[in-house]
Amino acid sequence: MAPSSVLRPARTLLACASLSLVWVVGELATASEDPPAAETGATETEAAAEVDLAVLREGAIAHLGGRVRTVIQLATYDEPWHAVLGRFGPVDFARIAAWSDTQYPWLELDYADPAPFLFARRDSTADFVLRNARPHERFRVTLEVREHFRGEPWCEITAVERIDLAINEGSVLHASRAIEARDKGTIELAYSELERALSSPLPIHARQALEALRAEWMAADGR
Length: 223
Fold this sequence. Notes:
7 strands; alpha+beta; 2 domains
């Protein structure tokens, strides 16, 4: 993984939360009709294709009106948004922004680019679980791909299941500091911060990414 400049993980509104969405005829693609209503819960997984959230964002039209399963990392819960013509409004739904499981929030570009339009129906099981979750927690979710608007899928979360191991906020902070220190040329501090990031329990793919970064640095430094 190539070193990258860092965006300090701060509890600020993400850029996507302040989008001013204006309705333009023909820009909203929507499923022809909703599937039958169902109780929200972790058993709602039938006929759901496994799709990485990043892949879904790139090709949402192919899944419009369908059901997918994916893993998310929670970014924000119920940040305000400007409702548009469509089925999602702030009275009935909470908006969730989330990273895919293949994004690393210690990288600036990944941190700044969560999927912005995932929704949980208020007072549903999914809403209760996500409302009480912490940023960076991981969940396996079922998404109903309801609409496609302004280049993003608008999905309803109809089932949610917590995954115990997550990229915790401390690891994100230390990995971010490590990259920042490396970019500034403070090499020993960079290694120290990276080791601190690795000292916490991490999902295997995240640990491998940080270990690959350390190996890249060590090769460059002749260590």
